[in-house]
Predict the structure.
Amino acid sequence: MKVNIQKIIESKSPKLAKYIPKFAIKYLRKIIHEDEVNSYLNEFKSLSSIDFARATLKRMNISYTSDGLDKIDPEGRYIFASNHPFGGLDGMMIADIIESKFGDAKLIVNDILMNLTPLTDIFVPINKHGKQSSENTQNYNSTFNSNVPIITFPAGLCSRRIDGEVTDSEWKPSFIKKAIQSQRDIVPVYFEGKLSNFFYNLCTIRSKCGVKANIEMLYLVDEMFKQSGGSFTIKIGEPISWKELQNGESHRKWAEKIKKRASLLK
């Protein structure tokens, strides 16, 4: 059970893997903390997914609390829609908080994260760069049709600096459609937090240069370890009924409104 960046690249893009020089692979292994991540995977390999997340956060000396979760009916069926400042830590923290109240939780993630085997039991993978497999599609739909609380980051990417402010990009409206289809209420969630100036500056430079590839994503693990020792509060808002989502407004408009409601929790 270990992360091997070269094998991950080969599995996602065999053609690209052939042209990446060894020094680049070595650099990638450094910035994704391959050895450190693998030490976590080895040390906590016997734990369940949610306990693995908790043990990881504890080892990183990260503390976190929630505000507002006590107002949420534990018998309800929800989609928790959150901003995405960290690109990883926020998912583990929310999963722990939600699981502690509901006894279970599922997190919608990029399928590349399925390489983190100890966490796969709480992951519901989607392929953001290609066609969905029939297995993933079936798992995705069955999860929404279940009673398990679902956590999603509608922006699809972690927050960026936009017009001088660290914020999510546009929230994709697919979670609105799924909420209506599965008759789940939506709970807005807000995390206060940000990554390094290096990360945001790299994103800005990449965008200005017209580079479409999300190269700053390579630094998310490094950014995660920079949060060690941090203390965070997860703000939980009032549920929005799936019935209200059918008032005639577009799904995109609703996604925008719920994003604003989440940001007002700060």
In short: Residues 203 and 227 are 19 Å apart (CA to CA). Strands lie at 63-67, 78-82, 106-110, 123-126, 150-152, 160-162, 165-167, 185-191, 231-236. The two ends are 39 Å apart (CA to CA).
